[in-house]
C-alpha cells in the first residue's frame, strides 16, 4: 500500500468458505444468502464494519467497531474482518461466528504515525509505515505477539502480502526490500536506486517491484531475487500513473490520468508497448486498476465511475452512474469486484458488463441502526417446522414468496443456524418456534437438507481447519477455498491459486512458474591460429523444479569485408549464430571468427547471448 496513495486498494481477500448463511429480515421467515462465492468486509469512517455478499450484493452484517475515525480501513483473512484505525494505531478483530468486535488493540507500541495491517489465517502483520516498525500478532488474539516488534530502520514506502502469507516491504529512502515469514525477517538491500519512484504490487501471488525511474517491473522470487522482468511504457515525468496487477497472472497494469490511457507490461514476454487503451479523458484522476474475470477495472475519481476493459478485445464499458464522489476503494474478492466509499454509506459490486449493484452500508440519518454486535447473546427462534402434508419442503422458504432481502434489514446467522447441505453426522433437527429443541435422527436418509442444522460445539466435534465456525466433519468446504470438498482438486489448499496456470493448484504443484536461471561462466579467446580467432563460451543453467530442457548460445558481430590495406573497410553485421544442446545444465559453444593477418581490423561489436528453457517452456536470458 502506498503511503501517500489517494485511495487504498485492498489486498486480495480470501473466500468466506463454501457454506450457506441464513439471514433474517424482520419477523419474516429466514432467507438464504449463499456466501460460497465470496464476501468482503468494508469499513466506514463513522466507525462501522459491513460484510457484503458478492453474489447477491446484500448486507450480511453491520458491526460497530468504535468511534468515528477518518483513518479506518478494513482488512480480511478468510471470514475474519479486522478494523484498522491508522490514525489511532489500533486494530479490532470481528468474530466471524458472532460478529462481535474484540477490544481495540495497539499492536505496535509508541505514538502511531501511519498504521496499516495485512492479515493471514495465522497472523496479523501490523506496520507503522511512518516509523518503520513491524509487529506480528496472533490472528485469533491480537494481544498475543509472535516474536518481538521489529524496526526496519526506515519508513515503509509500500507493502504487500504474497500468496504464501509473507509480508514484503519496500524502504522509503533506502530502496531495501524486506520480507517477513511470520516473525522471521529477511533483507535484500538496494533493490531500487530511486525509492520515491518505486512501489510493490502483486502479480500471480508474487511481489513485483515497480520502478518508475528505471521504467521496469520485476517479479521477485521467494529468496528476494528477480525471476522475471518487463518494461513500463510510461512518460518519465508522468506523476499521474497508478499501477495494479493480475492476481493470478503475469500482467502489470499502468493507467495514466494525464493521458487517460491503460497500458500493459507482460512479465512472460518482457514487452510493454503492445497495448494502449483509452479509458478516460486527458487530465482525469484515476486510481490503481484491478483485474477480475479477464477484465481490468479502473476507478475514475473524476467522474466517480468505474471503467471495465477487455484488454484482449480492446473493448471498454463504463458504469452508467457514479458509484461514489471523489476517491474510493476498488478491490477484488474471489472474482467479485467490490467498491467502497469509506466516507459515505455507498458500496457495492461491479460486474464485467459495467453494471453495478449498489449497497446501502448503513442509514446515513442513523448510522447506529440495525447493528449486529449483540447477536451472540440474543435468543433466536428456530424456523417453523412444515406441516405434515408439506414434507420435503424447505422451511426456510415456507411462507416466503421471495428470498430477496433489503440491504437495510438483513441479519446474519449465528453458527448454530448454519445450514449444511445434505445434512451430516451429528446433525440435529430444528423444532417449532418456542420449543427448546430435541435431538433428531442422524440417519443419512434425511429427506430435507434444509431442516438440518449443526451445533458445532456438541453435534460436530473436531478441528475447524478454515476457522469458519463449522468443524471439518460437517463442513462442505473444510479448507475454505470456495470449492466444495466433493470436487476439491487439492484438499487443504486453495484450488483457485495457480500461479503458473498449469491446471494444478499451487498447494499440490511441485512447480510455481519460476523460470530457469542461466549465466555465462567464462568466455575464452584462444586466438592461436593465423587467419582465425576462436571463442569458447561456457554457460551454466539450473532449474531445480522441472529441469533444463535446452541451452542456446548466440553470437553476433560486425565483420569487415576486406583485409587489404588499399581498400575501404566495409562493415557487415553477422548473426546471430546459434548453437545449443538439450537436457544439459552445462554447455560450451565454440566459434571461429575471421582474422586479418596484416594487423587490419577484422571484427568488432562481438556479443554473446545465452538462453535456457525449462520443461514448462519458461525461458531465461542473460
Please characterize this protein's 3D structure.
Mean pLDDT is 78; it is low at 1-37 and 375-458. Helices cover 0% and strands 38% of the residues. The two termini are 32 Å apart. By secondary structure, it is mainly β. A hairpin with a 2-residue loop joins strand 6 and strand 7.
Task: Supply the CATH superfamily name of the domain at 152-321.
Answer: YVTN repeat-like/Quinoprotein amine dehydrogenase
Q: Give the class-level CATH name of the domain at 152-321.
A: Mainly Beta
- The count of DSSP E runs of length 2 or more, i.e. the number of strands, is 41
CATH topology of the domain at 152-321: Methylamine Dehydrogenase, Chain H
Broad shape: elongated
Strand content: 35-45%
Architecture per CATH nomenclature, i.e. the level-2 architecture of the domain at 152-321: 7 Propeller
Number of helices: 0
Gyration radius (Cα, Å) is: 29 Å
Arithmetic mean of pLDDT: 78
Low-confidence stretches: 1-37, 375-458
Structural class: mainly beta
Distance between the termini: 32 Å
**Helical proportion?**
under 10%
Summarize the main sheet.
4 strands, antiparallel
Major sheet: arrangement of strands: 9-10-11-12
Q: What is shown here, in short?
A:
By secondary structure, the protein is mainly β.
Keywords:
single chain; 622 residues; mainly beta; Methylamine Dehydrogenase, Chain H; Immunoglobulin-like; 4-stranded antiparallel β-sheet; 41 strands; 0% helix; 38% strand; disordered N terminus
Amino acid at each position: 500500500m502506498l503511503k501517500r496513495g489517494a485511495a487504498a486498494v485492498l489486498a486480495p481477500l480470501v473466500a468466506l468458505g463454501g457454506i450457506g448463511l441464513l439471514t433474517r429480515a424482520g419477523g419474516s421467515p429466514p432467507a438464504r444468502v449463499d456466501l460460497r462465492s465470496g464476501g468482503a468486509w468494508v469499513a466506514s469512517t463513522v466507525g462501522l464494519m459491513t460484510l457484503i455478499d458478492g453474489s447477491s450484493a446484500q448486507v450480511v452484517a453491520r458491526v460497530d467497531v468504535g468511534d468515528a475515525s477518518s483513518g479506518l480501513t478494513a482488512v480480511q483473512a478468510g471470514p475474519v474482518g479486522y478494523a484498522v484505525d491508522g490514525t489511532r494505531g489500533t486494530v479490532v478483530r470481528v468474530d466471524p461466528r458472532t460478529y462481535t468486535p474484540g477490544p481495540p488493540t495497539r499492536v505496535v507500541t509508541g505514538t502511531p504515525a501511519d498504521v496499516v495491517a495485512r492479515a493471514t489465517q495465522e497472523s496479523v502483520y501490523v506496520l507503522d509505515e511512518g516509523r518503520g516498525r513491524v509487529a506480528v500478532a496472533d490472528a485469533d488474539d491480537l494481544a498475543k505477539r509472535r516474536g518481538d516488534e521489529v524496526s526496519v530502520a526506515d519508513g515503509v514506502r509500500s507493502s504487500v502480502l504474497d500468496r504464501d502469507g509473507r509480508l514484503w516491504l519496500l524502504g522509503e529512502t533506502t530502496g531495501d526490500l524486506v520480507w517477513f515469514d511470520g516473525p522471521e525477517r529477511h533483507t535484500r538491500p538496494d533493490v531500487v536506486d530511486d525509492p520515491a519512484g518505486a512501489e510493490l504490487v502483486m502479480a500471480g501471488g508474487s511481489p513485483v517491484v515497480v520502478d518508475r525511474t528505471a521504467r521496469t517491473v520485476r517479479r521477485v522470487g521467494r529468496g528476494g531475487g528477480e525471476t522475471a522482468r518487463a518494461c513500463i511504457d510510461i512518460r518519465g515525468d508522468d506523476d499521474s500513473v497508478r499501477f495494479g496487477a493480475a492476481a493470478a497472472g503475469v500482467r502489470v497494469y499502468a493507467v495514466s490520468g494525464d493521458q487517460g490511457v491503460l497500458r500493459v507490461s507482460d512479465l512472460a514476454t518482457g514487452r510493454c508497448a503492445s497495448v494502449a487503451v483509452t479509458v478516460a479523458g486527458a487530465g482525469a484522476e484515476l486510481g490503481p486498476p484491478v483485474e477480475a474475470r479477464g477484465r481490468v477495472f479502473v476507478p475514475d475519481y473524476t467522474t466517480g465511475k468505474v471503467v471495465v476493459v477487455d484488454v484482449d478485445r480492446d473493448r471498454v464499458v463504463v458504469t452508467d452512474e457514479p458509484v461514489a464522489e471523489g476517491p474510493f476503494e476498488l478491490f477484488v474478492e474471489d472474482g467479485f469486484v467490490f467498491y467502497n466509499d469509506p466516507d459515505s454509506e455507498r458500496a457495492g459490486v461491479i460486474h464485467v458488463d459495467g453494471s453495478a449493484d449498489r449497497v446501502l452500508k448503513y442509514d446515513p440519518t442513523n448510522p447506529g441502526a440495525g447493528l449486529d454486535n449483540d447477536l451472540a447473546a440474543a435468543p433466536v427462534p428456530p424456523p417453523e417446522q412444515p406441516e405434515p402434508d408439506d414434507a420435503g419442503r424447505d422451511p426456510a422458504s415456507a411462507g416466503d414468496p421471495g428470498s430477496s432481502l433489503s440491504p437495510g434489514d438483513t441479519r446474519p446467522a449465528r453458527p448454530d443456524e448454519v445450514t449444511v447441505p445434505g445434512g451430516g453426522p451429528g446433525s440435529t433437527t430444528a423444532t417449532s418456534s418456542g420449543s427448546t429443541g430435541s435431538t433428531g435422527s442422524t440417519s443419512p436418509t434425511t429427506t430435507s437438507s434444509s431442516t438440518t442444522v449443526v451445533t458445532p460445539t456438541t453435534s460436530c466435534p473436531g478441528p475447524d481447519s478454515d476457522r469458519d465456525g463449522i468443524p471439518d466433519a460437517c463442513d462442505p468446504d473444510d479448507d475454505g477455498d470456495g470449492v466444495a470438498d466433493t470436487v476439491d482438486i487439492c484438499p487443504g489448499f486453495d484450488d483457485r491459486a495457480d500461479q503458473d496456470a498449469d491446471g494444478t493448484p499451487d498447494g499440490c504443484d511441485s512447480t510455481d512458474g519460476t523460470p530457469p536461471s542461466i549465466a555465462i561462466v567464462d568466455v575464452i579467446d584462444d586466438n592461436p591460429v593465423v587467419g582465425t580467432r576462436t571463442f569458447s563460451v561456457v554457460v551454466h543453467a539450473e532449474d531445480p523444479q522441472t529441469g533444463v530442457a535446452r541451452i542456446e548460445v548466440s553470437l553476433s558481430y560486425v565483420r569487415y569485408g576486406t583485409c587489404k590495406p588499399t581498400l575501404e573497410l566495409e562493415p557487415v553485421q553477422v548473426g546471430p549464430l546459434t548453437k545449443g544442446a538439450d537436457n544439459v545444465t552445462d554447455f560450451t559453444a565454440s566459434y571461429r571468427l575471421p582474422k586479418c593477418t596484416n594487423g587490419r581490423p577484422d571484427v568488432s561489436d562481438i556479443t554473446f547471448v545465452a538462453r535456457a528453457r525449462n520443461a514448462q517452456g519458461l525461458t531465461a536470458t542473460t
